Amino acid sequence: MATVDLNQKIPNNVGLADDRRLQRALEKWQPEFLNWWNELGPVQSAANDVYLRTAIDVSGAGWAQFDYVRMPEYRWGIFLADKEEGREVNFGSHKGEAAWQDVPGEYRAELRRLIVTQGDTEPASVEQQRRLGMICPSLYDLRSLYQVNVEEGRHLWAMVYLLHAYFGRDGREEAEEMLQRHAGDADKPRILEAFNENTDNWLSFFMFTYFQDRDGKFQLHSLAESGFDPLARTCQFMLTEEAHHMFVGETGVGRVVKRAAQMSAEHDTLDIRPHGGIDLPTIQKYMNFHFSICLDLFGQEHSTNGANYYSMGLKGRYLETKIDDDHVLTDAVYNVPIIENGKVATGEDTALLAINERLRDDYIADCQRGVDRWNKSIRDAGVDFELTLPHKAFHRNIGTFRSQYASPGGEIMEKDAWEAKAHEWLPTEDDRKYVLSLMAPVHEPGKMANWIAPPDRGIHGQPIEFEYVRLH
Ligand SMILES: [Fe+2]
Ligand SMILES: [Fe+2]
Q: Which of 1, 203, 216, 263 qualifies as a FRET site for 279, CA 20 to 30 Å off?
């Protein structure tokens, strides 16, 4: 079951050959996917030979094979984690029932919505990042970008498989629409706001893979707990790929921070722009921006949808089965932020209605870990500067803090006062122009752009100066 035959038209470990109808439907969608990739995937990349990993097995450590691949020939396929015999619905009002192998009729609409919303983010990020290859800071980084891109393409396949296999005609229609909505499109934008932003520079790309792919990690984790077993198994395997995306983000931001700290120490100033570096205060602003828009992705603090998805057994909490409680949450409560007398205070909600807030809090704690490591590298360089995640009230567009004006420290302010300070907190037009001005392609193996430190090691045991992408 686990091993994947890459020679099939659609590599898979779901026995596609035994389901002719489904196979035909997916084979019809495949050329449409490839058209989308060629039109809206990474620009001018089709002829490059890229040292990529391809999934060949879903179990154990040896699931990937590394080799030079042209991206349009990447083996996008359908890989589910192995079935766990006797698995149950582990939370909500169906707790203890056998996990569903088919869509429960009464929850069809909710499940489809969850799958479509997740699926839509996958091609969106490829579209958002499509021009970055033209301005890569090294071949090592170019490979990382392409690896993330092909895997987001595969994540789209993962969700489209579920739609085709379990949702009949409306599933097929949803699969079509995945290729019709586009990031930033005025008429048919992607579903979630953060997936319509343009990622036009590599600092944003690293912030994206650190913060936005980490949102993906938490969404996938909670879907990997689903009582709908095919969704759980799909998401489990997607998480193994997602881990690499966050590695790209954490080490990417980490290398920009390291270089900034080096230059600051060398020139004894934070103002390293005259030396062609990205200064730490600018990095902080980008962090404020990306972190805050990602907090919105978790939805409202008080959410009946979130409560319903949980009680229905469709979407659990982060590491649900490791939490020590009744997994039904009838009487449980959870702290949520409220605004009281013009200040952020702590209120209480039912744990069910606050399910989004709990996931957001788990996410914030996870984000902090990387920030701590970045700060250590700043201290190690002997530079007096600390990066901090802004308060969850800062720069929000969904929930309690929507239309509030909070400082990064969490102080609620008047609109005018906030706007007068915004240039200190969020990237300005000038900041963006400056960062963009540094983005020039570096194509010599082993060479790095001046604003980023080299990685500690190469990929898959290869040296840093390995030719990770053969450009054509
Ligand atoms: Fe993904
Ligand atoms: Fe990802």
A: 216
Nearest-ligand number for the alpha carbon of 153: 1
CA distances from residue 227 to 151, 316, 355, 358 in whole angstroms, order as listed: 25, 9, 17, 20
Number of domains within the chain? 1
Distance of alpha carbon 184 from alpha carbon 203, whole angstroms:
19
CB atoms near residue 457 (< 10 Å): 11
Q: Residues 164-180: what's their mean pLDDT?
A: 97
The secondary structure element, H or E, covering residue 348 is strand 343-350
- Helix (H) / strand (E) element for 232: namely helix 229-267
What CATH number is attached to the domain comprising 419?
A: 1.10.620.20
User: DSSP 3-state assignment of 30?
Assistant: helix
Is 250 a member of any domain? yes
Judge whether residue 459 has pLDDT over 50. Answer: yes
User: Residue 20 domain-assigned?
Assistant: yes
- Secondary structure class of 343 (helix, strand, coil): strand
Gap from CA of 123 to ligand 2 centroid (Å) = 10
Q: Measured in angstroms, how far is the CA atom of residue 358 from the centroid of ligand 1?
A: 22
